[in-house]
Amino acid sequence: MLELRDFALKIAATLQAVKEPDPLRLELWNHTPATAAYLIAAVIEECGDADIALAKVRIDPYVAVAMDNPATGARRSYGNVTIEADAALFQRVEFHRSAGCS
To answer: Taxonomically, which superkingdom (predicted)?
Structure first.
């Protein structure tokens, strides 16, 4: 999982360094729901450590289940970030920056 943690650091650095595109979208084709869930949690944690404000993260419903979130249409928090499951995001994730994100 060290490789995923390094990838999470790079995603967090991208979220901090550039404001576009917003939301930042990633394809999860090469990840199982469990590894995608680990990656998303790691990105949220890295953003928290670096004071990168995320408004929400929208995820694939299969990944939501792997993160112990309810399936499509439900919201839940992970840390201070809202997690939304959306069936339209099959094998994708969207990281939405907060309006006040610098």
So the answer is: Bacteria
